[in-house]
Amino acid sequence: MNPHEGLVSRLRAAWLSGKTRPMEYRVAQLEALGRFLDEKKQDILEATALDMGKPPFEVELSEISICRSELNHTLNNLGTWMKDEHVQKNWVTQLDSAFIRKDPYGVVLIIGPWNYPINLLLVPLIGAIAAGNCAVIKPSEISRNVERLVAETLPKYLDKDCFAVVTAGVEEATRLLENKFDYIFFTGSPSVGRIVMTAAAKHLTPVTLELGGKNPCYVSDNCNVHNVARRVAWGRFFNAGQTCVAPDYVLCSLEMQEKLLPALREAITEFYGPNPQESPNFARIVGDKHFQRVRALLNSGNVAIGGQTDTETRYIAPTVLVDVQQDDPVMQEEIFGPILPIITVASMDDAIAFINARERPLALYVFSSCKKVVNQVLEQTSSGGFCANDTIMHMTLTSLPFGGIGQSGLGRYHGRFSFETFSHPRSALLRGIGREALNDPRYPPYAARRLPLLRAATETKRRAVCAIL
Ligand code: NAD
Hints:
Elements: H1 5-16, H2 23-39, H3 41-52, H4 56-82, E1 85-86, E2 97-104, E3 107-111, H5 119-130, E4 134-138, H6 144-157, E5 163-165, H7 170-176, E6 183-187, H8 190-202, E7 207-210, E8 216-219, H9 225-237, E9 249-252, H10 254-272, H11 288-296, E10 302-305, E11 309-310, E12 315-316, E13 319-322, E14 339-344, H12 348-356, E15 363-367, H13 371-380, E16 385-388, E17 409-410, H14 415-421, E18 423-430, H15 451-458
Parallel strand pairs: 3-4, 3-6, 4-5, 6-7, 8-9, 8-15, 9-14, 13-14, 15-16
Antiparallel strand pairs: 1-2, 2-18, 7-17, 10-13, 11-12
Helix pairs in contact: 2-4, 2-5, 3-4, 3-6, 4-5, 5-14, 9-10
Bound molecules: nicotinamide-adenine-dinucleotide (NAD).
């Protein structure tokens, strides 16, 4: 027997009882999540500091404030989102009621990664609760202090009949995935995403895959270098580069590289002081395996800034690499560490061609004071999200969908999009049982003469196109 079969059956029974459907229940659980964030804030700060030396300021901003913002936005709008959406009708159904009911899926599984271990578990959970689901939550075993905190304390805030935390390494997670869930929301690497999707396919379970990849950052010749350097350095070195939407590499001309290097050096010193190892504002790599992998990437190209490492504390200095070739290891995988390679290109067209020759990224950044350049990059490329003249900031908006495309993921969430992700848009047509004569034309024995009438009553017509426009 599967070790989690009992748990999943228990949650499904609770879901079938209809307990999670009323708005009051959803609001109460969301408010309980808010209390968890308030009351356990200090524990979250300590656990994330133990796991990867996360600066408290970064935790406040990227874990707690983002969850709080999602919670408030959801609580402010839930009543509207839950409403049936009435739709246009044809002639035949004029007297009926036709609408989309936002139905919960049932029992959903949320699997989180270690890099933002609270945010990337709770933000999907907010959507799952808001949509009326029961949920199994699996934190990453790599951020083990947060895993322990979530497993020990979160269940005390939520309804145990409907929500459970499962701690699992790879082997146990594999067994967990053998169960039939009604939806799986996964955040992690593309390789594990494939495993999750394969397991989901066995039960035809729908999935959202929030994955990673290499996010390009094109810096045109026409921009304020000082501001570019600060915004790129902040996005790259926040959480020691362990951010799925961090700019992974810079594309720019050789002339821009010459201007950007001193500006980046200045920004790094301004942010982290002359020795970033002593800075309280710079995080560490999460574990030894990840440290070894990221450190090995320092051998690509030449180190222009930084490059220092310390194995014991898993420290890798904010680093900029130059003379990087396309086939260097640093350009073969998502860096997920504090290393920024600069690749020189001859023109904007070359940068666009470079981007389009690779997997579609989760985020794409362009810096230019020329709107035409920004629009051209936006028009001629494809990515999960896009941000001009800054990094990461697009994902602070609950009004924008967040998700990847192609290799960087499948599906979207945040704000209303989270609610929609965890809701099945169930189509409903409620007809009356009388007025049977109106149905006569569609029944056999078929009469060809009735066809024009039926078609007129059911078929959608092409709207007339205005000749002036
Ligand atoms: P990962 O894929 O190694 O692990 C993610 C989760 O999957 C963890 O909970 C882990 O325990 C679980 N897992 C691992 N192997 C499994 C298996 N065989 N079966 C079932 N579950 C398994 O990812 P990670 O190292 O935790 O996170 C880093 C990756 O996540 C990066 O690629 C990053 O870009 C991506 N990421 C994406 C987003 C996003 O929003 N798109 C956010 C953060 C991180």
